[in-house]
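idk why but the lab printer keeps eating my pages so im just putting this in chat instead. protein + flavin-adenine dinucleotide:
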Amino acid sequence: MSGITRRDFVNGTLIGAGASLVSCDASKRALMAALDPSYYPPALTGLRGSHPGSNKHAHDSAWSGFSDWGVTTELSETYDLVVVGGGISGLTAAYFFQKRHGADKKVLVLDNHDDFGGHAKRNEHTIDGDTRITYGGSQTLVEPRHSNKIVTELLGDLGVDLKRFETAYDHGFFKRHGLGAVTYFNEEVFGQDKLVQHPFCNYPNYVEGLMGAKLSNEDAAEQAPLSERGREQLLRVLNGGLHLLDVPEGELEDYIYANSYFDYLKRTLGVDDPGVLKMARNSGLDWATTGTDLMSIGSAKSCGALGFAPVAVYDEENPYIHHFPDGNAGIARALVKRLVPQVAEGESAEQLVTARFDYEELDRASSVVRIRLNSTVVHVEHRGELESAAEVSVKYIQGGEPYQVVAKNVVMACYNMMIPHIVSGLPLEQAAALRLQGKSPLQYTTVGLRNWEAMNERGIGLAMSPGNMHQAVLMDFPVSMEGYEYTKGPREPCVLQMISCPYGNTVGAPKLVQYQEARRRMLSLQFEDYEEEVRRHLSGMLTGELFDFDRDVVSISVNRWAHGYTTGGPGDSTRIGRQPFGRITIANADSAPGADAKTAMMMGYRAVNELG
Ligand SMILES: Cc1cc2nc3c(=O)[nH]c(=O)nc-3n(C[C@H](O)[C@H](O)[C@H](O)COP(=O)(O)OP(=O)(O)OC[C@H]3O[C@@H](n4cnc5c(N)ncnc54)[C@H](O)[C@@H]3O)c2cc1C
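predcted complex ->
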């Protein structure tokens, strides 16, 4: 199978020590530790995710080999462990390190973002005084009952009660309001704005309780704004299937994984209509790490691409409901609470859902564990010979200034492809392997709406949108817990999730070429561009009196993840890349690879064990 599905969750030069070191006075340290009391990143809107500036130093280093960071301030801080990267994997590493070695062990977590959690980010939208909680990345605990003992125990320690989701998730919400899976065709690409009550693919099927197609294949294809020939082809695809392949039964399984989905569409089903092919390309979305143009028939089938009949997505034990209102940020917050107990009131992950975290507490000199945000690590080096070194120095940039701390151990829980640019002296084979670890770009835009009457009127729970930047727009998951109530009715505020999997311009171009092109395009856009796109999308889809963009849209957070789902590297490169190196070990979901929170936790656990 090419790529990792939701179900399966499913060069540069080394930076020299360079600049000279000066020691830091106590007042400067105190200043750095104190964040403004109003500092509360979940409530920020605009460009979020990897927000502007967060990757600047990493890009300077990786793209142009920049290493002249200026005079480094050497802090008199020594840690038992420094963790590079404050995502779920890094936070888990910090947690297991203390568990294994003692709660008195001093740990520093450094992250380049203004908030902790990595991909697991919380978004809040305050709409007419009502705060709506949602997620800006890592969405749901996928199949948590299939977790191994380590993860199951960790979830238990964090107070995650899996049974609780059975009632916290409102299974009847979509049916009660008649909200189903539809397709929005936009004027720009399809010649007219039109809503058809059929998703034309299996993608929406993971949303528990969402109603399916309200039209038959025949009626839906007839309504699609395509040429007559296009409509015929669409119906042929919808009524197609593997039985049309001229392959003996016993060879079918191998055949479908060895042959291209787009070839099947074009050769077996005779599809050449650009509209139908566009619908097909965008029908897998974030179930996978590429458009379906790069998938085998087997992969396209398993992610429910255009033409594959709805299939059950999860087994009965594992419906897609293990979702905190802020997604897996709920897990990240529970980890932070264990590491820095004074950060918030509440114990279990559920009790923390409505807690406002006090970011001032994250980096107190008096704490055993400190989490330092807005800090990009640029250089990590053993002090002395690799075999005998007792310490590692860690240099990071904060507020444009370089600082250095010392640690007995380091876990690199950051993007693995960046590690060769940061860690000095890695064996060449390992460095080369790490550079090959890829990530696909992904974007989750969250929109604060005054009400969802227009969505309700049209029966939209999730709209596939093959002509738009955001190929799907959906009502957030209906979860209420610990005093947080999901929107009760169409007149109440809500959050819409808009999902964009950016692809390259050339259909069928190699994956890495498409990622690079899509990433460049993503990073070249300003907030105003996204706002305009969201305006056109929602206004075209929700025509009529009940929706007015300027009246009804209160806030937009564009969570851009230029480096989103981990895709690993070729052959054995992931295993070679993640090998321990002296006092430094490697975590992050990249080191499995697996775009999955449970995997991220396991990689944190492994990296700590490897430290000995
Ligand atoms: C949009 C999106 C949706 C997802 N949905 C799901 C889902 O529903 N379920 C699921 O299980 N998984 C999902 N995932 C996969 C997600 O990657 C994992 O769940 C998990 O959050 C990964 O955690 P991590 O700690 O390994 O990596 P990350 O979350 O990427 O954390 C690594 C951190 O290290 C930081 N870092 C990088 N370089 C440096 C440096 N030089 N100095 C300091 N810090 C650095 C990064 O910026 C980041 O904050 C999703 C991912 C994305 C992008």
